[in-house]
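Example 9 (inverse folding). The structure is encoded as follows.
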């Protein structure tokens, strides 16, 4: 049975979202590792890119991920106050509030982009966040990047 996304003509039967996750080396990547070593199941839709700090994720990386076919992007870092580099996640929080506005301007649903704080000891939280984002993006359907390709 083919399910069509309302008013778009896009069939979503058998479609699975592709999610890119930029994970801080010190906390969220360790949380993902803990989820894996603890055998906590989470959707395999995420492709993890380890970065030194969430503050090092350039907004262009997010835009490029969407341009190259990602249906959702997660930037995960240390909890505020616990950053290995002291203030990296404070920069992340400010920077990506603006990125959400830019994505909205470009016609990308803001729910396709998430910033989350996940500690190295929170393997279950990592799995829960990935499951939640996967379900949200799945409900939105495939990303339409027509406007995005013209911009970049």
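The amino acid assigned to each position is listed next.
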């Amino acid at each position: 049975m083919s399910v069509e996304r309302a008013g778009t003509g896009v069939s979503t039967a058998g479609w699975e979202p592709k999610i890119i996750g930029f994970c801080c080396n010190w906390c969220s990547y360790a949380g993902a590792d803990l989820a894996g070593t603890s055998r906590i199941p989470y959707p395999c839709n995420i492709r993890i890119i380890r970065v030194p700090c969430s503050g090092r994720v350039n907004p262009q990386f997010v835009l490029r991920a969407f341009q190259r076919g990602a249906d959702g992007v997660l930037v995960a870092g240390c909890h505020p106050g616990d950053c290995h580099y002291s203030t990296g996640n404070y920069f992340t929080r400010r920077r990506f509030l603006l990125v959400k506005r830019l994505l909205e301007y470009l016609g990308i649903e803001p729910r396709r982009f998430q910033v989350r704080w996940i500690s190295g000891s929170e393997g279950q939280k990592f799995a829960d966040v990935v499951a939640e984002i996967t379900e949200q993006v799945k409900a939105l359907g495939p990303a339409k990047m027509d406007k995005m390709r013209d911009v970049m």
